[in-house]
Amino acid sequence: MDKQFLQAVNEWILDDPDPVSAAQLQNWVDTSNELELKTSFNGFLEFGTAGLRGPVRPGPSGMNRAVVARTSAGIVAYMKARALTSVVIGRDARHGSYEFALEAAEIFSGAGLTTVVLSHPLPTPVLAYATNELGCDVGIMVTASHNPPQDNGLKVYLGGTVDSITYRGSQITSPTDSLIAQEISKVVSAKNLPRANNWSTVDDQLVVNYISQTAQLAKNPGTLKIVYTAMHGVGKETLLAVFKKAGFDLPILVDAQAEPDPNFPTVAFPNPEEPGAMDLAIEMAQKTNADLVIGTDPDADRCAVAVKDPKIGWRILHGDELGAVFAHVISQRNTSGVFANSIVSSTVVKKIAEKHSIKFQEVLTGFKWISKVNNLSFGYEEALGYCVDPLTVNDKDGISAAIFIAQIASDLARNSKTILDLLDEIWNTYGYHATEQISIRLKDLSQVKELLNSLRKNPPQKIAGRQVTLLEDLSKPKDGLPPTDGLRMWLEGSIRIIIRPSGTEPKLKCYIEVIEINKEKAVEILNQLRPPLKELLS
């Protein structure tokens, strides 16, 4: 192996505060395991608008105590330059989450900042709530959300107004991410950073307050039989408490997925969007003759809903379908504030807002942008993220979405209707909006960029025999949005296609929307588009 490379490895080993990861690296050095070493030393784990996220492994390219320490020190420098003095830290139950939360707490408290830590693994929305409720300047959540089992990460929230951006307990946006990344790059040692253990633990009354406020979304509890899966994550305890506080019967649990398990043994990917992830919950619904299925992802900031379709049986609602339901119901109750959704979400919410004279704003993909909309009253993204109670949590919240959809389904049932009946009413009013996402999983992020650049150089003229009437490079926007990596195409007829990289995984995503008066016609067009689009992405 190259001597300069080995020197860098040995310097990292000597500076690693974790003897376990240091010993693993030393073993790879002793056995000349160049593959593992180069995987671990392929650049410092990138810090972006989702914070950090990557595989738990030694070295600068993985999630480990040394990387968390250096990242925390970079955030400290960013905070001190802006006179920010307080931080709250939460965690989920993934591999390393406990150790990483303690590592961060030591660094923040060692830097003289007021540091508080949530007492046990909790949903990400509770951390977002705590950041705002406690008046903290910064919130740190140790989680990789719905990523594969081997991953972990840090999400960063800001509490007030920083650099002229009002956050109110929401995720950082550009250019904050690059400013923090610059500070991280200046940290030369993890082991020599000042540390302390004088942080305090947040009183559980804060969680009780979150539960009470969220339960208020349900004013008239029903008696529906609801199945719930926590998908091996941390949602169960909080969700059950919210349902109990609201007066609902407790949901039927999918026992095999009810307790936190960082290995996620029953799912290929712990993401309710992925095929098969909700299968056990649907099986339980069939066995118990349930009325509704609700699932949250491992950190419970996303919510999935399955309903019984009289034509095809149980099916999971698309994120856009649930977004339309929420927007319709909220528009009947409140016409103040602003509705918002990401550019890859359906255009139906904009039409609902316009019909009820509600202000609407379209933003870039990611809840970090939705949360920055002033006077937000409802926001959503098609990837199962919903903000139905922005005054409590100014971020996506799977717990509040779950209790809200339970209340909506109960209200409909009293009138002998279902969520699907309500959707039919929406489509009859605004036209049928058929949406679908195609995801291509790749080995690494570089392949994603190569594919996108190839599409920029050789854009399609036709797709499924339909002319591309407009192609927009989202990295050079003309509609007032900030630049982002991706392409947006319009095809003859009411067809929109957006291609962009995933913000958290090596995946290329394609979002399709077809609008037709007739549902069958829209589905037919989707079926025609799917094969050529998959070929285009491959």
From TrEMBL:
Domain annotation Alpha-D-phosphohexomutase alpha/beta/alpha: ranges: 46-160, 211-306, 319-430
Cited InterPro entries: A-D-PHexomutase_a/b/a-I, A-D-PHexomutase_a/b/a-I/II/III, A-D-PHexomutase_a/b/a-II, A-D-PHexomutase_a/b/a-III, A-D-PHexomutase_C, A-D-PHexomutase_C_sf, A-D-PHexomutase_CS, Alpha-D-phosphohexomutase_SF
Cofactor(s) of this protein: Mg(2+)
This protein's UniProt keywords: Isomerase, Magnesium, Metal-binding, Phosphoprotein
A GO molecular function held by the record: magnesium ion binding
Domain Alpha-D-phosphohexomutase C-terminal residues, every copy: 469-514
GO BP: carbohydrate metabolic process; purine ribonucleoside salvage
PROSITE patterns named in the record: PGM_PMM (PS00710)
CDD domains listed in its UniProt record: PGM2
PANTHER family (UniProt xref): PHOSPHOGLUCOMUTASE 2B-RELATED, PHOSPHOMANNOMUTASE 45A
Family: Belongs to the phosphohexose mutase family.
Protein name as annotated: Unannotated protein
Organism: freshwater metagenome
Lineage: unclassified sequences, metagenomes, ecological metagenomes
